[in-house]
Design brief:
Elements (H helix, E strand, L loop, with lengths): L1 H8 L8 H28 L3 H29 L12 H18 L5 H18 L3 H19 L7
């Protein structure tokens, strides 16, 4: 079941299929809200209290548990364990490096360029430490370029 759900909500590269994810989440949220509405309606309109309790429990389980399970599955699927290094794919490293480069360039015209460049430098070196293979060289190149921009603005890199 999880494999089918994975294929339905994520493409082969692990990217979210936004429309499918939004429809799935909206459906589950609507079911949960419908469960609350039914909970209230049954409490008001079913005269037999034991029967009303049974119906209420059925609606809670049938309409709210799927949303809770879905949220739990998403959390479990995307967990990062403290102390265990994160392993990024080449695509993720490229996206991070592109973002860091763009932010470094954009920060040059800002009044707080120094602290921004200092922060971006630390982030770029962190990516360089984590990256492997060909991506490590690209990450080091981006980190050095950000360090050059930072040095031009009077920021000195500390260890």
């Amino acid at each position: 079941m999880a494999g089918r759900l994975n294929r339905y909500l994520f493409d082969a590269d692990g990217r979210v299929r936004r429309t499918r994810m939004l429809v799935t989440a909206a459906t589950l949220i609507a079911m949960a809200l419908g469960g609350s509405l039914m909970f209230t309606a049954i409490a008001l309109f079913v005269p037999n209290p034991p029967l009303a309790l049974a119906w209420m429990l059925l609606f809670v389980v049938a309409l709210k548990i799927p949303l809770i399970a879905f949220c739990g599955w998403l959390i479990y699927r995307n967990k990062e364990i403290p102390g265990v290094p994160v392993v990024w794919s080449g695509r993720e490293v490229r996206e991070i490096l592109t973002y860091l480069s763009a932010q470094a360039t954009a920060s040059l015209s800002r009044p707080d360029a120094r602290p921004r460049l200092s922060y971006l430098s630390r982030e770029a070196w962190h990516v360089a430490d984590q990256a492997e293979g060909e991506m490590k060289a690209d990450a080091v190149g981006v980190a050095l370029e950000i360090d050059r921009l930072a040095a031009d603005h009077g920021v000195h890199r500390t260890a």
